[in-house]
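Before surveying the methods themselves, it helps to consider a single example record, giving the amino acid sequence and backbone structure tokens:
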Amino acid sequence: MTAHELAPSPPALARRAFVEQIMGLPVSVHVRAADTRPPEVETAVANAFAHLRRADRVFSTWRADSDLMRLRRGELGVGQTHPWLADVIELCIEAEELTGGRFSAWYEKRDSRRLFDPTGLVKGWAVVGAAAYLDEVPGISYCLNAGGDLLVGVGRGMADRAPTWRVGVEDPRGRSRIAAVLPLTSGAVATSGTSARGHHILDPRTAKPVERPGSATVQGPDLMWADIWATAAFVDLEGTRARMAEAAPDYLVLAL
């Protein structure tokens, strides 16, 4: 009998799921651990959901009292809003520069006014912030799913024994089918396309919707940037691939 055969099998991990509706999306946290019942797990998940609700209060385009909507109406200046808004504006500028304008939070309206809408960046940014609470829980692995964009990570003491999560990528031409499976122990997967919400993605360079079918999925270390690159790739696949090769080589794009 070999030494490998004598080695004990790793303990089976229990799994627990939490789901809330936030930002108009189903947001789920799946936790895997030897024991998923300690109060630290529930506290971290509650804090993660609370972080996302705070982000919604600041950035929602559906709440008239959000900081973003009050800024749009001219009721507040940037310096009078939550500090998160100034941070996100800087990130939106950086994202537009890195993608060569294929991603933008500024859109021209019919009256030629520029409209600021950071929605395409905020969700991933907020999820990364929410996941920081889960990172502090010892002995867990987690998957945080916000409307189909996922962040996988581990708590303290799990970096060298993280389980693998199998992330299915939906076939945009038949949403009941899985087109690819991406194994993750940590990192993010984000998808942009038209199969779920129709032609809602604008090409910032033309201010017109991208009307082609299909999707672009990006896998990488950070969900905010995976989401940005996925949007840019759906707008212009080849141009974005060239940009990613130079500016974000740790990110991979799957076009369907």
